[in-house]
Amino acid sequence: MRYAYFPGCAASGSCRELDDATRGVAEDLGIELVDLAGAACCGAGILQETNPEGALAVNAHTLSLAQTEGLDVLTVCGTCQLHLARAARSLEDPKTRARVNRVLEKAGQDPYRGGVRVRHLLQVLLQDVGERKLAAHVRRPLDGLAVGAFYGCNLLRDPGADAYDTPEDPTSIERLVALLGGNAVSFRARTACCGFHALAVREDLVVRLSAAGLAEARDAGATMVATPCPLCHLVLDARQRKAAKASGQTLNVPILHLSQLVGLALGIDPGRLGVDRHVVPVTPVIEKLEDREVVKA
């Protein structure tokens, strides 16, 4: 399995540990990640709102790079998944594609011909790797871990998402947790917005949103929360202390990106997964797993 790898800005910068974890998981599962030199930000809402045509051209550039490699795109970010998939759908229209290709031509970029798929790591694990192979690679089952799935608001809003999950009541992360040996915990706020895009203007609102979601997960019995989006990861982990203070609650809910959760179950060293970089300590999770490693042939 080979994919054009698009980690996105957050996993490439402010939470680089998620990129490290993804590469470790890919290596263990025999997935080849082909880096796209020159790929730019997906636009992440800001460019989408202020210059939608520019955002479309930027994402067409990324899709064209993947097409040159003859590969579909793999991303680990729910927001990147949304905007790249939307762009890919828009560019299936011949007139739109011709218009955007004129922009790419001016930049010296190969024209985009259409047909590149954008797939999140979650979808690749469940559909392309497959549940049987993934389960066979588990060397440190997540026994005893109650995992709350925080999907966020973007992952399942992209075109075609309903082909592998139900946006209103998803189950894919819960299925993944079960394959890894953990106990999936359901809570109402799991498809809510984390508030990331409002951080610059209404951090007070963001911390209240995240506090409400984390408190729901905790009260439902989750000992940790897993998210498929680096932006949710940043808010739920890095802003959790502010969220606790604003809400007057004790939270202390460890946050793991899906790549890190899978990496732990595959037996990858926690240090390689970058869990020591988190603001909320992941130590309680690691300690529960220390005596459960099972090496399979």
Give a structural overview.
With about 300 residues, this protein is an alpha/beta fold. It has two domains: about 1-120, Glutathione S-transferase Yfyf (Class Pi), Chain A, domain 2; about 140-290, 3-Layer(aba) Sandwich (Rossmann fold). Helices cover about 45% and strands about 10% of the residues. The protein has helices at about 10, 15-30, 45-50, 50-70, 80-90, 95-105, 120-135, 170-180, 205-220, 230-240, 240-245, 260-265, 285-290; strands at about 1-5, 30-35, 75, 120, 145-150, 185, 225, 255. A four-stranded parallel β-sheet has the order 2-1-3-4, with helices on both faces. It has a four-stranded parallel β-sheet with strand order 6-5-7-8, sandwiched between helices. Helix 8 links the parallel strand 5 and strand 6. Helix 4 packs across helix 6 and helix 7 (about 120-135) packs parallel to helix 8 (about 170-180). The longest helix has 18 residues, at about 50-70. The model has no long low-confidence stretch (mean pLDDT about 90).
- DSSP strand content: 5-15%
Instruction: Name the overall outline.
Output: globular
Order of helices and strands: EHHEHHEHHEHEHEHEHHEHH
Given as residue ranges, the uncertain stretches (5+ residues, pLDDT < 50) are: none
The strand order across the widest sheet is 2-1-3-4
pLDDT averaged residue by residue = 90
Query: Could you say how many structural domains there are in total?
Result: 2
